[in-house]
Design a protein that fits this description.
single chain; 102 residues; 5-stranded antiparallel β-sheet; globular
Length: 102
Amino acid sequence: YCGLMPQLNNNEIFHLQLEVFLNGLSAEDIHIECVLGYETPTVKFKKFVCYKLEFSKTINDNCLFELNIPLTENGLFDYELRLYPSHPALAHPFEMGYMLCI
């Protein structure tokens, strides 16, 4: 759970960058998502929509992932970043049971 997004108006671009040290893995070995959501009286974070961050470039030993999306909804949103393994041989994206939420 990361907190509040900066203030943006409708149709402005939400730009997000995440630099990750993969310790020998390639950018294709990991899937990174930005989950937009909001709080409710009964749930701390309720998912609204999910976007995949795309690999941009390598900086030293780190991989830079980016997201650029026009915001089409108004209101107060929170966001969460999810990182998990990715491989074509997996039957389901969450098959390995490993996920890091930040």
